[in-house]
Specification:
8 strands; 4-stranded antiparallel sheet; alpha+beta; homodimer; 191 residues; Jelly Rolls
Amino acid sequence: MKPSIRKIISGIIPINEEYLDVFFSKFKVVSYKKGDYFVKEGQISRYLGFIVKGSLMCVYNKDGKEYIDEFSLDNEFISAYASFITGTPADKDIICLEDCELLILSYSNLQELYAMDPVFERTGRLIAEMLFINWQQRVKSLLLDDAETRYLKLAENRPDLIQRVPQYLVAQYLRVSPETLSRIRKNTSLQ
Amino acid sequence: MKPSIRKIISGIIPINEEYLDVFFSKFKVVSYKKGDYFVKEGQISRYLGFIVKGSLMCVYNKDGKEYIDEFSLDNEFISAYASFITGTPADKDIICLEDCELLILSYSNLQELYAMDPVFERTGRLIAEMLFINWQQRVKSLLLDDAETRYLKLAENRPDLIQRVPQYLVAQYLRVSPETLSRIRKNTSLQ
């Protein structure tokens, strides 16, 4: 594994080198092509993913319409978490927007880690807490922010995303037309 | 502690009686009056709460307007979690809608539990996972559901809430006028 990835992971998860070796020994590397599904709605999501390289989007489908839940890029975890944890069918698709390289961990391997040493329970707790806090912030943003504010936050917090994800998908995510997104970008001089 | 509460808690957290005793020995019981603040925006939230009795609402404030994030009732956990975990100022108010009895746990007592036995790390992980999944579902509902659907889900999943929370606050939560909520209630025959 690239040293950079170890560094990033150990920044997220405060565990030492030895535990990190054990942690990653349970993952396997998988490559996906642009357009591949990491998770398919209606199927049980068997893996937790960590994105080594690439970008993916989580999409809900309702009445023939797509609703983009989230984009995920390099060095982020990705999963249909409820499905993965509870073993129930996923309620969304997770699709590769670019060719991707993921580290994936099966549910049973994760349980083995938990049983092996309390440090992994702690790791799991810290990741779940981080995800919970992120999602609380998403609810807050959906409640409080207009499209322009949401765009500015995206540009500030995740500039890579703005560059790498097609603009019509960013517009769909912000729930505005591509024309409105163009206007916002012009207004905010971030074009 | 009432046996019913032990039963409910042990349903949420799969730990045995002995551990449950230790778990609750770290909590203290506090009473609040209707209108009291459990958390005040701008202050650090020092406690994780469990609602023995009563109802509370989490509210964001922006430009003189209130945005209701969530209602919480008996047998639910309550906190400004990001503030509690990170020790940063809370970005919302948590206000008692009725006289409340809460079990509260300080951050340092929680860390003591984590250090004491891995079962508490597991407990923390399971709670954080449950909260994360709940909040993912909230994002999904905000993206996909119209006010009528959100009302129907609320009435189905949390009928107590519809009965106990003032209707103008339910309307505010659903982001509709009180008149629209009245119409929805009439249409859905749940009045």
